[in-house]
Amino acid sequence: MSQKPTQTNESRRDFLKAAGLTGAAFALGLTTNNVHASPVLNLSALPESVELTPYILIEKSGKITIMNPRPEIGQGTFQAIPALIAEELEVPLDKVTIRQTGGETKFGGMWSQAVGGSGSVRGGYLSMRKVGASAREMLIKAASDQWTVPVAECVAENATIIHKPSGRKLTYGQLAETAAKLPVPKEPKLKDPAHFTMLGKPMPRPDVPLKVTGQATFGIDSKVPNMVYASIERSPILGSKLVSFDAAQALKIKGVKQAVKVERVVGKNHYQGVAVIADNYWAALQGRKALKVTWDHQGYDTFNSVDFEKQLRDLAKSDGVIGHNTGDFDKTFAESPNQLEAFYETPILSHSTMEPMNALAHYQPDGKVTLWLSTQGGDLTRQEVAKVLGVPMDNVTVHVQFNGGGFGRRITQDFASEAAMLSKTIGKPVKVIWTREDDTQLGPFRPMTFSAMRGALSADGKAVALQHKVIAPSIDATMNETYDKTKPDGTMLEGTNEQKYAIPNLNTRYVHADIHIPMTYWRSVTSSTLAFAHECFLDEMAHKAGQDPMAFRLSMLSKDSDTKRVLEKLKEVSGWDTPLPAGKGRGVAQWDFFAGLAGQVVEVSKTKDGGLTVDKVYCVIDLGTVVNPDTVKAQVEGSVAMALTAALKDGITFEKGQAVQANFDKNRMLRINEMPIVEVHILAEGGPTIKGVGEPGLPPLAPALANAVFAATGTRIRRLPFDLEKV
Amino acid sequence: MASFKLTINNQPHTVDVEPTMPLLWAIRDVVGLTGTKFGCGIAQCGACTVHLDGNPIRSCSYPVSAAAGHKITTIEGISKNADHPVQKAWVEHQVPQCGYCQSGQIMSAVALLKQTPKPTDADIDTAMQGNICRCGTYNRVRAAIHTASGEMANLPKSTPKVGKR
User: Fold this and answer.
1) Residue A700 contacts B where some CB pair is shorter than 8 Å
2) B128 — contact with chain A (CB < 8 Å)?
3) Is the pLDDT of residue A44 over 50?
4) In whole angstroms, what is the distance from residue A555 CA to residue A544 CA?
5) Smallest Cβ distance to B100: which of A355, A630, A677?
6) A700 has pLDDT over 80
7) 8 Å CB contact between A395 and A212
8) Which of A378, A398, A515, B162 could form a disulfide with A473 if both were Cys (CB 3.0 to 4.6 A apart)?
9) Does A49 score more than 80 pLDDT?
């Protein structure tokens, strides 16, 4: 590969220094939010390279660097975002060096360098292409000026501008300096998608070669001179207060240097811990085990899942707050001869990224702090570290590494600000590494949701009324002091009123349940649980109506609905109308929500041992426009695996105030022998619509699976997780 | 503290550490090779898989004292130019997503193919079950192993391409 993307920040700094790009040069620039601002024109240092925009750096040698603002967490932004720029810039991606931005304000406002909500490619589809197109037009203009020929006679091709009539050529390296002095085109002309060479085609990811050789640097691999290591003892009984600690034994361990108090801030929650500092991680961990710590559990040591679940079931009797209402549910339900009611339950989950939380932080006496870490947003890290440390955001520099998984966990910046505070306390650069147990037990977690479903069918078997009442703790409430319980919580009702079924009387309600445990976003957020209740209940309604579950759904969808197209495609590719042999069953589900739209058919079969096995998952994902179809397939395959773990493995339960599951022995993950065949179909006709990729493959899996279990066995699954061996 | 002589990727290293320190941390923190990853610390996830005399071990739970004197191979040592058939197959199938577990996956796959050059799906299930991938790359792992197996079968026995042994 000629491509050598690197995340080595030392070399990046050296490179920029060599390029003569001073701080002043960085202060101006083209951002995603304001693509018409001036480009960098500060050439007083006569650099060997110039920034055409902050995203594009061209050296006289012709070397091109493209900055990727969206952290790579496995979802493919390290390829997709630079490809959006490179396509318009007319440079092949394998001739480009890709570098990761660190949340610097010149690249855009908050969240423009963060990943979440399946939003990176969607958010950048036009803005990133405009960045590339602006630069292309500036380079063309520079060449046409030099040749004194009309712009229309010049074309950009393979990092070169060609004067078509004469065949004269100038490389981007030769043109960059002049081009950078030109005004940025106000409305750069974007390429006709018919002429795309990269976008829409399966393209290799530039990070893959680094990831098969051990060369990719994740946060946990970061190193700086004179760095020390830390392991932090925090009470797994969340809410405990530190009374005292005795580090005498810990300090006797070779390599252990000191033990200090440290604070972890998770939204409104402040947790104390004791950090053991050592010259290697193992020594720090041994020192931590030798600590004697006294905690005041503040009564939280009696908290347990059994009681909390009972509380949720009791709360289901209250009305809650109305989220959405059309028609008259109560009246229709009361008058219906065909009423149904069912109660669905899902668990709390950990994110369990394969790379446990960690951060390397270096706080300097002048109040400046630098972090090297895996984060879902360099901008998010800068903002939170500045807030917790009480320093201006400009004081915080972040070097974003490849993330060993994100799934929403690395949006919360507790691990970053904690490391920064610790570095401030000890006056040294320190790498904090969480154990797997820390990572599993300390949250923030995905909230559990319980759903009380009620529905009514007309005499001719049509769904005429549906109520989805969600009883759950709230992400927002566990994180923010300002939470208002009297208002409907959109996140906790996510998607429940967005399905395209024509049900004339729809009512959604939220009943808030207080919990002291911090909760956060988890891949596909609340859709990861609410789709299970919603789409299983629709299956129950179909069964009660005596209809095929696919036909029942299709009958409620209008001809032009995206959901209808998804289900029709699903019906075709899964061979839905072909009966399965005895002992097998198939189920269908779809989910339309903020991240996008997908539908799945799951096939299960009975095993000799009396259990069930998942044979195959057919998935149709609706995108409108696709950027890298192979990445889309990978994301859907991954969503299926994650959803299967969530449906079939352990979940997080609490006893005596702490999570029972601490490591992968009890918090089990799907393994290779349990992975079904996954067949992915992408609906992408092109056009202006572009939907998300990272999450939509997840919500339909659990309901499609449970519906398949019903088809195969007649048993309704209404609680997750469940055991396929014991259905 | 004690001094241990380790041979990692054919290079001699002397590490001065506690005998109980897991090999993983000696490799990462002392020797400085960070391709081998920490995932769980209890030999449940396989992210830390390395070879000891050609056999896969979980280095997070293997004391450095027991590894001394043996031939250790890490992800950095399976090929000089990223051209081990397993690495090439991993690229061909675009296996990694986040990539964090992939060093371990590859080390398990390399060991499997050495032991069983033509593995069945059942062989793959057995050999690869100890490696968790949270991104769910399992089907691509399986496909890539079959591809690598095919390529290795076509290579002459004397080829130097199959990495260091």
Assistant:
1) no
2) yes
3) no
4) 15
5) A355
6) yes
7) no
8) A515
9) no
Q: Is the pLDDT of residue A21 over 80?
A: no
Average pLDDT on A157-180 reads 96
User: What does A664-678 look like in DSSP terms, one character per residue?
Assistant: TTTS----GGGPPEE
Chain B, window 47-66: residues with a beta carbon less than 8 angstroms from a chain A beta carbon: 47
Among the partner-chain residues A211, A282, A283, the one whose CB lies closest to the CB of B96 is: A211
CA R_g for chain A: 27
Domains of chain A by start residue, with CATH? 9-211 (3.30.365.10), 219-299+357-433 (3.30.365.10), 305-348+446-726 (3.30.365.10)
Phi/psi at B65 (5° precision): -65, -35
Cα–Cα distance for residue pair A438/A353, rounded to 1 Å: 12
- B74 close to A (CB below 8 A): yes
In the three-class reduction of DSSP (H, G, I as helix; E, B as strand; rest coil), residue B106 is classed as helix
Count of pairs with CB atoms under 8 A, one residue in A, one in B? 183
Task: Please give the Cα distance from A34 to A47 (Å, whole number).
Answer: 25
Chain A, 77 to 136: residues with Cβ < 8 Å from chain B are none
Residue A485: CA atoms inside 13 Å, Cβ hemisphere, count? 11
Stretch 270-289 of chain A: residues touching chain B, C-beta under 8 Å: 280-283, 286
Top-level CATH class of B2-77?
alpha beta
CA distance B5 to A710: 59
Share of chain A above pLDDT 70, in %: 93
List b or e across A434-443, with b for residues whose CB sees 16 or more CB atoms inside 10 angstroms: bbbbbbbbbb
pLDDT tens profile A471-503: 999 999 999 999 999 999 999 999 999 999 999
Q: What is the pTM of this model?
A: 0.93
Considering only CB atoms, B35 lies closest to which of A214, A670, A672, namely A214
Tell me: the pLDDT tens digits for A85-121?
Answer: 999 999 999 999 999 999 999 898 899 999 999 999 9
Range of weakest confidence among A125-134, A324-333, A417-426, B33-42: A125-134
3-class secondary structure, B13: strand
Residue A26 or residue A614, greater confidence: A614
Structure tokens at A434: 């969480």
Of A211, A664, A677, nearest to B40 by CB-CB distance is A664
Location of each CATH 1.10.150.120 domain in chain B: 85-162
Task: Tell me whether residues B140 and A634 touch, CB distance under 8 A.
Answer: yes
Residue of B nearest to A401 (CA): B98
Q: What is the ipTM, given to two decimal places?
A: 0.94
The whole-number pLDDT of residue A41 equals 25
Residues of B within 8 A of A75 (CB-CB) are 97
| B40 and A CB contact within 8 Å | yes
Contact state of A218 with B134 under an 8 Å Cβ cutoff = no
Residues of B in contact with A678 (CB under 8 A): 139
Q: Look at residue A693 in the predicted model and tell me its pLDDT.
A: 97
For residues A568 and A75, give the distance between their C-alpha atoms in angstroms, rounded to a whole number: 28
Residue A52: strand, helix, or coil: strand
Q: Which residues of A507-526 are buried (b: 16+ CB within 10 A; e: fewer)?
A: bbbbbbbebebbbbbbbbbb
Average pLDDT of chain A is 92
Q: Looking at chain B, which residues constitute the CATH 3.10.20.30 domain(s)?
A: 2-77
Q: Does the pLDDT at position A12 exceed 80?
A: no
Which of A52-56, A243-247, A256-260, A312-316 is predicted least confidently? A52-56
Which residues from B are below 8 Å from A614, CB to CB? none
In terms of CATH architecture, what is B85-162? Answer: Orthogonal Bundle (1.10)
